[in-house]
Each structure stands twice: as structure tokens, then as C-alpha cells.
Design goal:
Blueprint lengths: L78 E2 L34 E2 L21 H31 L9 E5 L8 E6 L3 E6 L3 E6 L5 E4 L10 E5 L8 E9 L2 E9 L5 E6 L11 E6 L2 E6 L3 E5 L5 E4 L7 E8 L2 E8 L6 E7 L5 E7 L4 E8 L2 E6 L4 E5 L15 E2 L12 E3 L2 E8 L2 E8 L5 E6 L1 E3 L10 E5 L5 E5 L6 E6 L13 E4 L5 E4 L8 E4 L1
Antiparallel strand pairs: 1-7, 2-27, 3-34, 4-5, 5-6, 6-7, 8-9, 9-10, 10-11, 12-13, 13-14, 14-15, 16-17, 17-18, 18-19, 20-21, 21-22, 23-25, 24-25, 25-26, 26-27, 28-29, 29-30, 30-31, 32-33, 33-34
């Protein structure tokens, strides 16, 4: 593994500059089915980029304070609801137990969802020649085909019996009922992110702001005050998880596309611990951002800024600087890793794709490219699994420690990092198996891939992948989205599904099709809809 430091890594703490500003936004995500397209003159049809500084030749530079400590006054205190206690914090986890072995036979999936095991597409060998050098006669081949067909018919009959037996038993032994419901604050409310702790669910949305609710009864425990002097700012990005100390990062702005400040928030109390600006005199335009946690370090990924801060204090840990004086850069983040695709006029390797450690800012690997690469999604940080689009090919790869790696057998499926919302980060590793939501022929599916071989192990149709609570048993949990809704547990290696609990049938706008689904520590199902028009929050026990 390369241990080269990122430009700017280890810089004196007095130099608080940490930013880069690409000339333009990266193109929108494209479906990344595995298909080839013809060569193109340029990756996006744009004329050659001018270096930073334009014709003057001025070297691009950006210096701004990384963190402006602010007085801890009432503007930074969370508002506790009268009579509500502040519960202790238990961070949400998603431990992935290692699952040995691979499936060796197809398994029928009970219930309304169906499991489809892909067959390998290996080339068929030519028939061997006989002693005289000629190929076997047609009659002999026909006999073999007839024998194979007879075996397949017998096997299909046995499989049909097994399927009927499993279908007959594919009913959960218990049913969950709705414990409480929180309506959305407005029909146009959009879910930005959420955290699940031992006793709270924290919901960030474009109209409702940042609020915490008690899992026992759905009552609001706190709401976070705005971090800006001007009221009306709302969450525009949230870290998918909180740290071991119960601190998460939230970006605030006027909407989801204009993040102006990043803050550290105590998930148990809603208190704003620190905040820092995401704009400056050199970069006055607020843009969209994402933020992720890896241990005690929070990364900030946007068109203005890329770097890491201490999640407890907001102080600088590392900052990105371009590898040359005249560079354009595009960046994408996930838990533990940041990918940067750049084009530098003053470097021998004009195009490079680099992976940075989100905790330290060190370069994990860097590889030269012939043209620009776009990364619609990073599905896993370790091992790094990303969808990479180039002018010639779309592919999802396990990129390893060198930036090159095995391709996943995606086929015609379109993989996503979450069910139906940017706030959903339900794709995750279970040992060496990557389980991720996908779309196939317009319908939602869940795919399981072996990251060591790239093989697709199984496909589960009509189900929404759930985020497991801390201390779960290593199984994949999902909610069926057709037929009678059920919470099901899926073995990550074999894909075999087992009903866990029945759920009330969706009525009207409630339908388990969008947003985030959690399995709570006590085995309940928590649903957060992505759009206010589809509802708010519901808990089933």
C-alpha cells in the first residue's frame, strides 16, 4: 500500500488553507450497466480546460480559517422539550460478521419476493474428435441432450415440490403493529439524513430541521438550533453514522444544494459543539456537500472543500491540495475513503484517479488515466467498491490497493448506495459479501456479490434493504415491497430468506418504498420516508 502523503498533509497548523475549487460541477450520475460505448473526443464535450489563474498565470491558492470558534450561547443550545429527559447515547452500529463459504445450490426464497441465482456465462467447449479426427455424429449428441433434459425435468419437479413446501411455510410467526407515527412537517419536506441510537432516532430534513424523537413513544426530545446568525437554515448533509462518543456532523444551508456551515452535533442532547464555514471570500458560492465519519475524524467533501476535522473539536486534521498548480478536480466520498479525479496541465500524467484515506488524508493509491472518470457511487470504503464511468465503459469494481481490481458481475442491474434517497446508506459489507440495493427492469431488487471473485451470489426482488441495529446477528434485513409486507432476514452468503415478522399493509401514502428503514435494537421496524408527501416516521413493534 502506498504511504505517500497527500499534498498538504502534515502542513503547519498555522496554515489553515484547505480547499480546492473545480472549474465546474461533475456530470450527473449515469446508469452504470456493464456496457461499452464508442470512443468520444472528450469525456464531457467541453473544450480543454484553462489552468487556474487564467491567462494571468497567477497560481491558484485558497487560504481561510478552517474553524471559527463561536461563543456557546443560546444559539448553539438544543431546545429540550418540557418534561423530556435526555437519554444516554448508544451509537448505531452495523457490524459485519464474516461469513465463510459460498453457495453451492439454488435456494428458493419464501414469500412474495423471489430469489434468482445467476448462472455462469462460461464459453461452451467444442465436442472432442473421435479416433478418426471427425466430430461425434449428431445422433450421439441428440442422445446426450435427451438425457440432460430428462435429468433437468426430474430436478425441476423436485424443486417445484420444495418451492411449494417453503411457500406454504413462508409466513411469519408474529406480526408487528404500529406503535406511533410522526407526520412530515410539509408535503415538500425532503429527508436529508438520520441517526439511530439506543433510545433516539434523529431526523434531519429540509423543512423540519434537525430533531430527535424518543423510540419508546415518538415524542420529540430535542430540536437543534440553527448554527447561523440568520435563522431559517436547515440541514443539507448529515454523516451516515455518529462517532463512538455520540457526535455526528451536519452541514447547514438554505437548501440541500447550498451548504454554508458544518457543525458537530451531540446526538443525545442536540447541542452544537462547534461549527466552521464552508464558504470564504475566495469561494463565496455555497454548494452541495457530503460528510462522513471514520473514527474521530469527519471528512467534508464538496466542490469548495475537501479535508478532515476532529469530530470532537472541529480542528483541522488534514487538508487536500492539488498535485499541481493548474488543476481541475472532481471528488466523491464515503465512509473511510475519498476518490479524486483530476486533470493537471503542468504534470506529466495529466489525468489521475486517486484514493485518499478519510482518516489521515494519505494517498492509498494513485493511477494515471487517459481521460476523465466519473464515480456515480461508492458502495463500500473497505474494500473500496465503486461504480466508475469512463468514455468507453461503465463498471462496478473492487479497486483494491492499486486502483485496479475485479469487476462485479452486475449485468443489467443498476446498483445504488441506498433504497431511494441520498439519505439512505443501506449498502454494506457482510464479511466478504457486498449487499446493495439495485434496480432491474424498473423494479427494486437487492443484490449480493462476492467481493473476492466478483460473482453475483443472489438477487432478491421486491424488497427494501434495511439498516441493521447494533448487535444484530450478521443477517441482512429487508422489508418486502409487494404482497403482504414482511420483515425478512436474508443469509448474506446463500441469499436464503426467512420471514421474521408481518407488517401492516401500506395504506395511501405509506408503502415501504422510499427513504430509510431501520431494524431497531428490540426488533422493531422504523420507517423514515424520503418525501413528506409519502409520510414522515413510523415505528412498528
Amino acid at each position: 500500500m502506498t504511504t505517500e502523503s497527500s499534498p498538504g498533509q502534515g502542513a503547519p497548523q498555522e496554515d489553515h488553507g484547505w480547499a480546492f475549487r473545480p472549474r465546474g460541477s461533475a456530470p450527473g450520475p449515469r446508469p452504470y450497466r456493464e456496457q461499452r460505448t464508442g470512443p468520444a473526443a472528450s469525456w464531457d464535450g467541453r473544450p480543454p480546460a484553462e489552468p487556474y489563474g487564467g491567462s494571468s498565470g497567477t497560481r491558484w491558492d485558497s487560504t481561510m480559517p478552517l474553524r471559527f470558534p463561536e461563543p456557546r450561547d443560546g444559539a448553539h443550545e438544543a431546545v429540550l422539550e418540557p418534561g423530556r429527559r435526555t437519554p444516554p447515547h448508544t451509537p448505531r452500529g452495523g457490524s459485519a460478521d464474516r461469513m465463510p463459504g459460498h453457495p453451492s445450490a439454488a435456494n428458493a426464497v419464501p414469500g412474495a419476493a423471489a430469489l434468482h441465482r445467476p448462472e455462469p456465462a462460461a464459453a461452451q467447449p467444442r465436442p472432442p474428435a473421435d479416433a478418426g479426427g471427425d466430430r461425434p455424429r449428431r445422433s450421439r449428441g441428440v442422445g446426450r441432450v435427451a438425457l440432460v433434459l430428462a435429468v433437468l425435468v426430474a430436478a425441476a419437479g423436485a424443486a417445484s415440490v420444495m418451492l411449494k413446501q417453503e411457500d406454504a411455510a413462508a409466513v411469519a410467526s408474529k406480526n408487528l403493529t404500529q406503535a406511533w407515527q410522526i407526520p412530515a412537517p410539509a408535503a415538500d419536506d425532503a429527508l436529508i439524513g438520520s441517526w439511530l441510537t439506543g433510545e433516539l432516532v434523529v431526523r434531519g430534513s429540509s423543512r423540519g430541521g434537525l430533531r430527535a424523537y424518543d423510540l419508546s413513544d415518538g415524542k420529540q426530545v430535542w430540536r437543534a438550533a440553527s448554527v447561523a446568525a440568520k435563522r431559517g437554515t436547515v440541514p443539507c448533509a448529515m454523516s451516515p453514522t455518529v462517532s463512538a462518543q455520540g457526535i455526528g456532523t451536519v452541514a447547514f444551508g438554505t437548501d440541500a444544494s447550498t451548504c454554508t456551515r458544518l457543525a458537530g452535533v451531540d446526538a443525545a442532547t442536540g447541542r452544537i459543539l462547534w461549527s466552521m464555514p464552508l464558504t470564504s471570500a475566495e469561494h463565496p458560492t455555497a454548494v452541495a456537500a457530503t460528510t462522513y465519519l471514520q473514527g474521530r475524524v469527519a471528512t467534508v467533501v464538496s466542490a469548495n472543500f475537501l479535508g478532515g476535522v476532529d469530530v470532537r473539536t472541529g480542528s483541522r486534521v488534514w487538508g487536500y491540495k492539488a498535485r499541481g498548480h493548474y488543476c481541475n478536480a472532481y471528488n466523491w466520498g464515503a465512509d473511510g475513503v475519498v476518490l479524486v479525479d483530476d486533470f493537471c496541465l503542468d504534470r506529466k500524467s495529466r489525468f489521475t484517479l486517486s484514493a485518499y484515506d478519510g482518516r489521515t488524508g494519505k494517498v492509498i493509491w494513485r493511477k494515471a488515466e487517459k481521460a476523465h472518470s466519473d464515480v456515480p457511487h461508492i458502495l463500500s470504503g473497505s474494500p473500496l467498491v465503486a461504480a466508475v464511468h469512463t468514455a468507453r465503459q461503465d463498471a462496478v469494481r473492487v479497486l483494491g490497493t492499486t486502483g485496479t481490481g475485479r469487476r462485479l458481475a452486475v449485468g443489467d442491474d443498476e446498483l445504488t448506495a441506498g433504497n431511494a434517497s441520498g439519505a439512505d446508506h443501506s449498502a454494506r459489507l457482510y464479511g466478504r459479501v457486498l449487499v446493495t440495493p439495485a434496480s432491474a427492469a424498473g423494479s427494486t431488487v437487492i443484490d449480493g456479490f462476492d467481493t473476492t471473485t466478483g460473482a453475483k451470489l443472489w438477487t432478491h426482488r421486491s424488497a427494501a434493504l434495511a439498516v441493521p441495529a447494533s448487535g444484530t446477528d450478521g443477517k441482512v434485513y429487508a422489508v418486502t415491497t409487494s404482497g403482504a409486507p414482511q420483515l425478512i432476514a436474508i443469509d448474506p452468503v446463500t441469499g436464503r430468506a426467512t420471514p421474521v415478522a408481518g407488517l401492516p399493509a401500506g395504506t395511501g401514502k405509506w408503502s415501504f418504498t422510499s427513504g430509510t428503514v431501520y431494524v431497531t435494537p428490540d426488533g422493531g421496524v422504523l420507517e423514515l420516508n424520503a418525501l413528506g408527501s409519502n409520510g414522515g416516521v413510523r415505528l412498528y413493534r
